[in-house]
Amino acid sequence: MIKLLIADDEALVCVGLQSMLRWEDYRIEIVGVAHNGAQAEEMIDSLQPDIVITDIKMPIKTGLQVAESVRRKSGRAPKFIILTSYEDFQYARSAIEVRAVDYLVKLELTPKMLEESILRAISMVEESEAASGQPQLDYRRNLQDLRDKFFIRLFNHLFESKEQVLLQKNDLELELDAPAYLVCTCRILGPDTVPARGDKLAALCTSTVQMARETLASSGPCHITSLDLRNFAITLPLPGKEADLWLSDLQKRLNDMARLLHNYFNVILIAGVGIAVEDPYLLYESYQSARRALPVNSQEQSIVFFTNEQQASELDASLFDYSALRPNIRRAFEEMDVQALHEMITRLIDRFAGQPHLLVSATDAASNLLYMATSLLADGEQIVEHIFEHEPEGYRAIYQKHSMEGIIDWLIQFRDGCCSILPGRRQTYKEQVVRNVQEYIKRNLDSKLSLNQVADMFSFSPNYLSHLFAKTAKINFVEYVTETKISAAKEMMQRGEGRIYEISQRLGYESAFYFSKVFKKVEGISPREYMQRLGNLSQIER
């Protein structure tokens, strides 16, 4: 994602900017909102945004002073879009030394004008990235999506081991080292003036989630995961598992957030708060309890804590455990095994039919299927959007089903739609998986990159990944890693980037001797001979 920071001392202007465009359509993540110049400069230093929209007049420092200061001390300054009033417009235009992308008059600002400025800024960011030779732009753009999928997999217990969680956590630069965690699931209700689907609803919900993120982040760390337009989950670190360590503080944080969202957007936020767990690998327990708490008192439009043991036992007595089916369903999605997927979803439908007391379980099962499809399939969200394109709220209609018959109708439509669409996507999906693995290898050339480690990273079995890679890429996994590393080594040698042992270290080899052995096997000559031919003999071992 391209990172955007908004800076203005007027809260309504900040809210207006957040809701004026559907920022996700531009692959933009709003990483922060500042309300004075000093705060803006601090957030630019810490968050490293790519684009900054800033008011020209703010307390402590003006927007121009911030832009000038950041440009002086940073080799990689963000692109600035300056907001002005009529009386400041000429002054802003004359301040060419900050080289702003654009100067926009607040009272004249329209979505079209903002979009044009943003597109110019995006183009300039991309040109700067290309000129600096930074290969990870696409990866950075997708980072928030990848983090969302990581948490969705945690919530739905889709990791096979703690090792898989650790690998992906490190790759996504996530910190999960608190004494305990819990998950809070939130649902956005109203207002009645907004249509049930369309751009207005999308803008409202996106802005609501963004403000929820900013409000909670201002009082402590958290991770917010968008589940769909109206539903999101908050993962909160805790000082310990015991409720008396955090309960009153958390109640205040969540109630303050809900009150602020209601005041700004006229929405009602209901939430279910799950149990605390000490291991992030067990976040699915907290998530499932939060989801069970949500419908319990949803009519009260409140925040419900799942902390009462009697409540827990009563709910558990009415729940259906389908954990034995979950790994097979996941595998069916991963391998696009339509026959297995149809069979297992049919088993769920048969189990729930005529069992109204299992409504909570049926809703959870349907939600799990939805999250597996959107997180495990390369274009999963587009697939389920197509399946439910005639529903007023699309696939999100699952949250409007309050009867077992409604849930079963949704499951049948989901099953039949998936089994109709997936056969035509099978080869494309496999190619996308292999491309993702190849990109991961290129980003991590400084690691050993064993088949087992990469398979864990992508939640596949080593045998399946090896077979898929060889069949799709027409080269086996080990050969691809070796050739990619040696190709990178040759490029380093051509640019004169270090001695042989330094290059071997940068490419994750245990020793220069082993690196030289592999290099000669691939190229037919040693690294020393290759560098001699390039005329870089002075770089070899001096």
TrEMBL record:
The keyword Transcription applies. Pfam families: GGDEF_2 (PF17853), HTH_18 (PF12833), Response_reg (PF00072). The keyword Cytoplasm applies. Residues 435-533 form the HTH araC/xylS-type domain. The modification 4-aspartylphosphate is found at residue 55. It comes from the Bacteria. CDD domains: REC_YesN-like (cd17536). Keywords: Cytoplasm, DNA-binding, Phosphoprotein, Transcription, Transcription regulation, Two-component regulatory system. This is Response regulator. The lineage of its organism: Bacteria, Bacillati, Bacillota, Bacilli, Bacillales.
